[in-house]
Design goal:
Blueprint (H helix, E strand, L loop, with lengths): L1 E5 L4 E5 L6 H14 L4 E5 H8 L7 H20 L3 E5 L5 H11 L2 E7 L2 H7 L4 H6 L21 E4 L5 H14 L3 E5 L3
Parallel strand pairs: 2-4, 2-5, 3-4, 5-6
Antiparallel strand pairs: 1-7
Helix pairs in contact: 1-7, 3-4
Length: about 190
C-alpha cells in the first residue's frame, strides 16, 4: 500500500456511459483519499441534477448547461483546496475539453466497459427501460457517446477490480505531478 502526499489540488473527471462504474469508482477514490486526511468532494452528475434542477431534460443544450455547472463547481472546489472527483457521463468531447481548459489541473479518466456488462449491472434500470422501449436515446446505447481521444487514463472496468482502478488513478495523478506516492511506513 502507498501513502500519498498532496502537491496541489486537482480534478479527477470520470467519464463513461451509464453502468461503466463512475459512481462506484468516485466513492472508492474519495474514501481512499479521505482516509489519508485529504479534503475530497464528489460531484455526481445525477445528484447535482436531482438537487439543483430536477426538471432539467436531456437535450444536448440542457446537458451542456449541466456540464458547465458541474465544471464551474469543480473549478471552485479545486481552487479552494479540495480534491474534486467528477462523476458524469459528459458524452461530448468538446464539453470535456471545455472542462479541461476551465479547470487546468485535470485528470480525465475514461471508464470503458462492454455493453453486455453495463446491461447486466444496470444500476438505474435504464438499460431495461431502453430494451423494453420505454425510453430512447440512452447515452452509449442508442444515444451518442463520444469516447475521449486522449484521456490521461483508460480503465477497462469490466476487467479490473475497484481497488485496481483506484490504484491506477492515484498512480496516474502522481505521474502528472498532482500527488507524490511514497512507500507507507509500517
Amino acid at each position: 500500500m502507498l501513502a500519498i502526499f498532496n502537491l496541489g489540488m486537482f480534478v479527477i473527471w470520470l467519464t463513461g456511459p451509464s453502468g461503466a462504474g463512475k459512481t462506484t469508482l468516485a466513492k472508492a477514490l474519495a474514501e481512499r483519499l479521505q482516509s489519508m486526511g485529504y479534503p475530497v468532494e464528489i460531484l455526481d452528475g445525477d445528484g447535482i441534477r436531482s438537487k439543483l434542477y430536477p426538471d432539467l431534460g436531456f437535450s444536448k443544450e440542457e446537458r451542456e448547461m449541466h456540464n458547465k455547472v458541474v465544471t464551474e463547481m469543480a473549478k471552485m472546489l479545486a481552487k479552494n483546496g479540495i480534491i474534486t472527483i467528477v462523476s458524469v457521463i459528459a458524452p461530448y468531447r468538446d464539453w470535456r475539453e471545455y472542462a479541461r481548459k476551465e479547470i487546468g489541473e485535470f485528470v480525465e479518466v475514461y471508464l470503458r466497459c462492454s455493453l453486455e456488462v453495463r446491461i447486466k449491472r444496470d444500476p438505474k434500470g435504464l438499460y431495461k427501460k431502453v430494451l423494453n422501449g420505454v425510453i430512447k436515446g440512452l447515452t452509449g446505447f442508442d444515444g451518442e457517446y463520444e469516447e475521449p481521444d486522449n484521456p490521461e487514463l483508460i480503465l477497462d472496468t469490466d476487467k479490473m477490480s475497484v481497488g485496481e482502478e483506484v490504484e491506477a488513478v492515484l498512480k496516474k495523478a502522481a505521474e502528472l505531478g498532482y500527488l507524490k506516492l511514497t512507500p507507507e511506513v509500517a
